[in-house]
Amino acid sequence: MSEIKVYHGSYCEVKQPSLDNGRLDADFGLGFYVTPDIEMAEKWASRKRRAIINEYILETENLQKYSFALNKEWLDYVIKNRNEYGKKVIIDAYDLVIGATADDKLYATIEQYESGFINADVAVEVLNCMKIGQQICIKSQSGLEKLHFIRSIELSPERVAELREHNRVDRKIANQIASEIIRKHNRRIR
């Protein structure tokens, strides 16, 4: 049996996750999002009024999985979900969709690609130069049935402040990386 420990950052304890809650315009569409990276879950939770980390075991055996590499396919899928949310696409037939998280530090690059300012090759080059977390979107009831709650932990105000500062620094570094790569690309095409 394949089991992995995963985390969900929230403002509350989530013992019984649902597919009905959440944002339709999230990276991989509607689903329950978890990550194997506890720090990533903490960073997401630190945006809330209360920062709660929910810990689970996810049994992945016998679930239909789709895994994205950090490439044009992932980029286009994230943009499609954010712009055409609520529409079913073929990947929705899977129990789990796995791939990079399009967090705050990636938004500028994604928007530049979407607007046509940079092409997919440049966007993917920028994205692959950054430390990016992995997310798992549970998209089916079968997937939720394989998710087992362990515990929840409330983060201290000090930890929340530390995480918010990390997020700010990460965004600044990501913007510097993106700007440098885009400048180099623009010099090459002139």
What does this structure look like?
The chain has 190 residues and is α+β, with helices and mostly antiparallel strands. The chain has one domain. It is 41% helix and 21% strand. The chain has 6 helices and 7 strands, in the order ββαββαβααβαβα. It has helices at 38-45, 72-83, 104-114, 120-128, 141-145, 157-189; strands spanning 3-10, 32-34, 52-59, 65-67, 96-100, 134-138, 147-154. The strands form 2 sheets. It has a 4-stranded mixed sheet. α2 links the parallel β4 and β5 (96-100). The termini are far apart. The mean pLDDT is 87.
Number of domains: 1
Low-confidence stretches are: none
How many helices? The count is 6
Q: Roughly how many Å is the radius of gyration?
A: 17 Å
The spatial strand order of the largest sheet comes to 2-6-5-4
Number of strands: 7
In whole angstroms, how far apart are the ends?
Answer: 55 Å
Shape: globular
Q: Give the percentage of residues in beta strands.
A: 15-25%
Order of helices and strands: EEHEEHEHHEHEH
The structural class is alpha+beta
Mean pLDDT: 87
Give the helix level as a range of percent: 40-55%
Q: Biggest β-sheet: count, sense, barrel?
A: 4 strands, mixed
